[in-house]
Design goal:
Strand content: 25-35%
CATH architecture of the largest domain: 3-Layer(aba) Sandwich
Order of helices and strands: EHEHEHEHEHEHEEHHEEEH
Largest sheet: 6 strands, parallel
CATH superfamily of the largest domain: NAD(P)-binding Rossmann-like Domain
CATH topology of the largest domain: Rossmann fold
Number of domains: 2
Oligomer: single chain
Bound molecules: adenosine-5'-diphosphate
Number of helices: 9
Structural class: alpha/beta
Length: about 220
């Protein structure tokens, strides 16, 4: 279903979000106070608007309250980001997602009712550290400081062994959510399913347990 989004602030993050939504076929309104940014945005947004996100009257005039989902991607100017978020929540925009610059910014955004807060540089840094420290990790999602979901590739250590033999949950405390084998994804792994070198496991668990599993079982 086609959805309507507004992105305020077209820095690197705002632009990426905007381009992807537009390519996915959604209607996107791109807002920035910089004229050049707005000119460029006409190639990757449905509508563009030169406006200051802290200007309450301007936000009201463009009918921002009618948008179900607004992304505030002004990060460097923390004061502007906070003020813009405050206006949007005052106008009862249902979903206001905001990029935060640091933990203080995050705390204030939380207090004023931001519905979701992002730290893209921090999250990407964590992901890259995971890839750098393990050749077996293909993808990685941080769930919290302690838990994550990883996509790992198996080695010959597991060749021909069934899940029951490997006894992963009891030995390592982590759970296999799905197995990708020969291009097919099995989301209901059976205890008798056998693993082979090169299979991809999607697993959930504590970071410590997942790391131990990768080091000892793969
Ligand atoms: P990134 O780190 O993702 O590149 P930046 O914080 O550097 O993000 O980018 C901020 C963008 O937001 C810039 O394009 C800037 O012109 C725009 N911006 C900054 N303040 C405002 C504001 N008050 N209203 C609208 N756009 C703004």
């Amino acid at each position: 279903m086609k959805k309507q989004f507004a992105i305020i602030g077209l820095g690197r993050f705002g632009q990426s979000v905007c381009r992807e939504l537009y390519h996915l076929g959604h209607e996107v309104l791109a807002i920035d106070k910089n004229e050049k940014k707005i000119e460029d945005a006409s190639s990757y947004a449905t509508h563009t608007l030169l406006a200051d996100g802290t200007d309450e009257a301007a936000l009201k005039q463009i009918g921002i309250r009618n948008f179900e989902h607004v992304i505030v991607a002004i990060a460097e100017d923390i004061q502007a980001s906070i003020l813009c978020t405050l206006h949007l929540k005052d106008m009862n925009v249902p979903k206001v997602w905001v990029k935060a610059q640091n933990s203080y910014h995050h705390k204030v955004l939380e207090k004023i009712g931001a519905d979701r807060i992002f730290h893209p540089e921090h999250d990407m840094g964590n992901r890259i550290a995971q890839f750098l420290t393990s050749q077996k990790v293909i993808d990685y999602i941080d769930l919290s400081a302690d838990y994550s979901i990883v996509e790992v590739i198996t080695t010959s250590k597991v060749e021909g062994k069934s899940l029951i033999e490997l006894d992963i949950r009891a030995r390592f405390g982590c759970t296999i959510l799905a197995i990708k084998q020969n291009g097919k994804v099995n989301i209901t792994p059976n205890p008798n399913d056998e693993l082979h070198k090169g299979d991809i496991l999607i697993m959930i668990g504590s970071k410590q347990d997942l790391r131990r599993f990768q080091d000892e079982a793969l």
